[in-house]
Design brief:
CATH class: Alpha Beta
Distance between the termini: 28 Å
Largest sheet: 4 strands, parallel
Number of helices: 6
Shape: globular
Order of helices and strands: HEHEHEHEHH
Number of domains: 1
Strand order of the largest sheet: 2-1-3-4
Strand content: 5-15%
Amino acid sequence: MSAEETARFEPRIVAFCCNWCSYAGADLAGGMRLKYRPNLVPIRVMCSARVAPQFIIRAFQEGADGVLVAGCHIGDCHYVKGNFITAKRVAILRRLIEFMGIPRERLRLEWIAASEGDKYARVADAFTEEIRALGPSPIKDIRFGERSRSCASC
């Protein structure tokens, strides 16, 4: 990708945020009028452990350049062990997406408390810049549902 294309590239990032902490942190960042990149599309889930592997894979299939999973800090989960489940799941998913041809750096896990609006803004900016440096997703042009219909050899 040329320098000009890199400068024009605006990543699309899906952010799965737990209702109790990270989504509230995102809300706090907005309430504090903190400036951060608008590339993240937050999706509220009740717990980070409710983010099924299919959701993450589907986000990449539908054109996301990066996926952020954000939850409560370890030990602060409203559902006791949800973030432990999430930590294990994301570690496994990083290997799976790498097998699919997606660099593992495109999937990020963060623990953001409801009182950490500033951290949410910092993570949004940092992750956007990381994804911008990586360029568009390598599977962005592949439409998985249409692949078998359009490719005679597949």
